[in-house]
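User: I'm new to structure prediction. If I give you an amino acid sequence, what do you actually give back? Let's try with this one:
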Amino acid sequence: MNYFDTIFSPGHLTLITGRPKMGSTCLVLSLLEINNKKPLFLNLNTIDLIDDSSGREQHQKQANTHFLKERCIDNIIEFILNRSEHEHFDIIVIDNINSIANKNIRLLTPKSRYLEKKIRRLKQLALAMRVPIFVIGIGSRKLDQMCYTGFSELALFENRYDTIIIPYRWEYYGEHNLYQSFPQELKEGEVILTIVESTNTAYRHSVFFDSEKYKFRFSME
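Assistant: Good question. You get back a string of structure tokens that encode the predicted 3D arrangement of the chain. For your 221 residues, that looks like this:
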């Protein structure tokens, strides 16, 4: 798991985004568990959006989950600072970050600049508190194609985050998945992660989704 050490560095801001059903929240929960990190977990939507029953149970068992129907970034930051006076946590996770936009704006699109300007304020918070922050949200409808054809379009957004992680569950699309001609043979449960860093580097990495346990595995073992 040294592969993901950077995203747990103090002050690091990571965006985990993708199309619906790609498992962004589940990926974060799996990363926290395998790295033994205690989170302050905020969900900005009071409606349970997880369809899978085991996934819903796992989400509700998250020790420090707070459901906030809140759009104001100042109030969210104030809530985090107040919680830091009463509990210890290793990382801050904010799910359904799209909720702070006044309209249904997806991340990593030309229209998301104002939304991501708000999110960028969380970078200042991460540095001040010396903790990493993960934000989770729904990305552009063109996101999968952007990852498949190359990283040049994603590079336009990389300076807004330290790291961007985009999961792609090819099995969800069946025979219409983008990676039919991918050089390697895709395995059952395999998920392609596109990882873009602010150091102008980008790469793909494979992980595996266990649909029975509703968890990601980071090796075949």
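You can read the tokens as a compact description of the fold. Here is one thing that stands out. The domain at 2-217 is CATH 3.40.50.300 (Rossmann fold).
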